[in-house]
């Protein structure tokens, strides 16, 4: 491990036992106003791993930002040993504009590894990858469902990585999904650097959900305890149920346009034929039931009150690696 040596992030050196907030300015707003991205670093005097907790790579995914904020405010980011780096908002431009994308319209999470002379999003990805990630051993990147789609709390990881699976087991979210690394993503580039990164999904954009935030915070504490980095003053909650691994899943799509009435099955196990929602027209002429096409867990639901034909409205598991139980998970 490198923890006893100074680590350098964006040209600033952080010594063992030192706490530092590095305010990174990569570009200004069109008004010439500075827009800093704070990187909060806390180091122990004891040797140990370097762990990154990041969020807001999509600027409208507020729930992840809230999780990292609480890690800082509750001093969970004060390590017993090693170093904890927190970046609550990677895409500050999107956060200011309540938008998923960068001002150039690009998705930062499809812009990695980036380029020093590319688009704004590409340049930002390049600097994060080259200035922060060389110091990191483990990372958890926090996300939420896009648009109005609400994700049940879940960890996503690539298959065939025993150490990453052990971390996912330790985090113990209600669900764990095997998900391939997507080209251009932060996770994909980090994996190529041999950084063990888990991706957490929970809640929906432009929303803060207390239960989802608690799942994220408790999972972080379990991982830090496993790495022997958690300050002893923090307690660790061990859920009664182990995480449910989902190998395959499918989207249930709307067969007509109209007003969506969700029956709140998110996070539950449903049988084939269970009515998940109804779609109605605004004029009282029809009501059409949306039924589960198979047995499975509802891991995502569209909470928009209005949907169009073909819209994804429910994400339902079709194959479990090991089915632990069929309890309702809230």
What is the topological layout?
Layout: E1 7-9, E2 12-14, E3 19-24, E4 37-43, E5 50-55, H1 62-73, E6 83-87, H2 92-96, H3 120-131, E7 138-145, E8 149-157, H4 162-171, E9 175-178, H5 186-192, E10 196-204, H6 210-226, E11 244-253, E12 258-262, E13 269-270, E14 275-280, E15 287-291, E16 296-302, E17 306-307, E18 312-322
Parallel strand pairs: 5-6, 5-7, 7-10, 8-9, 9-11
Antiparallel strand pairs: 1-2, 3-4, 4-6, 8-10, 8-16, 11-18, 12-14, 12-17, 13-16, 14-15, 16-18
Helix pairs in contact: 1-6
How does this model look, in words?
- The longest helix has 17 residues, at 210-226.
- The protein has six helices and 18 strands.
- It is α+β, with helices and mostly antiparallel strands and 330 residues long.
- It is globular.
- The model is unreliable at 323-330 (pLDDT under 50).
List its salient traits.
alpha+beta, 330 residues
Short description:
The chain is built from six helices and 18 strands. It has 330 residues and is α+β, with helices and mostly antiparallel strands.
How many helices in DSSP terms?
6
From the alpha-carbon coordinates, what is the Rg to the nearest angstrom? 21 Å
Query: Approximately what portion of the residues adopt beta-strand conformation?
Result: 25-35%
| Low confidence ranges | 323-330
E-strand count: 18
For the sheet with most strands, the description reads:
5 strands, mixed, barrel
**Portion of residues within helices:** 10-25%
């Amino acid at each position: 491990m490198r923890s006893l040596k100074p680590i350098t992030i964006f040209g600033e050196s952080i010594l063992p036992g030192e706490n530092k907030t590095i305010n990174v300015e990569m570009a200004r707003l069109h008004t010439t106003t500075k827009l800093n991205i704070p990187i909060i670093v806390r180091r122990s005097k004891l040797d140990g791993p370097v762990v990154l907790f990041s969020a807001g790579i999509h600027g409208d995914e507020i729930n992840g930002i809230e999780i990292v904020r609480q890690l800082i405010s509750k001093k969970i980011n004060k390590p017993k040993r090693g170093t904890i780096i927190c970046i609550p908002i990677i895409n500050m431009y999107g956060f200011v504009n309540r938008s998923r994308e960068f001002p150039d319209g690009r998705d930062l999470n499809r812009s990695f590894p980036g380029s020093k002379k590319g688009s704004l999003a590409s340049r930002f990805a390049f600097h994060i990858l080259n200035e922060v990630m060389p110091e990191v051993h483990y990372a958890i990147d926090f996300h939420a469902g896009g648009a109005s789609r609400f994700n049940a709390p879940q960890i996503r990881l690539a298959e065939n990585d025993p150490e990453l699976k052990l971390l996912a087991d330790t985090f113990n979210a209600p669900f764990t999904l095997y998900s391939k690394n997507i080209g251009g993503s932060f996770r994909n580039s980090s994996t190529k650097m041999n950084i063990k990164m888990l991706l957490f999904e929970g809640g929906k954009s432009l929303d803060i959900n207390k239960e989802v935030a608690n799942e994220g915070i408790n999972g972080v504490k379990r991982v830090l305890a496993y790495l022997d980095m958690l300050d002893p003053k923090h307690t660790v909650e061990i859920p009664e149920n182990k995480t449910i691994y989902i190998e395959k899943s499918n989207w249930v799509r709307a067969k007509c346009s109209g007003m969506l009435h969700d029956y709140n099955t998110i996070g539950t196990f449903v049988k084939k034929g269970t009515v998940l929602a109804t779609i109605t027209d605004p004029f009282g002429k029809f009501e059409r039931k949306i039924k589960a096409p198979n047995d499975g867990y509802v891991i995502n639901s569209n909470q928009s009150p209005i949907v169009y034909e073909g819209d994804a409205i429910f994400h339902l598991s079709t194959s479990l690696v090991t089915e632990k139980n069929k309890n309702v998970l809230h």
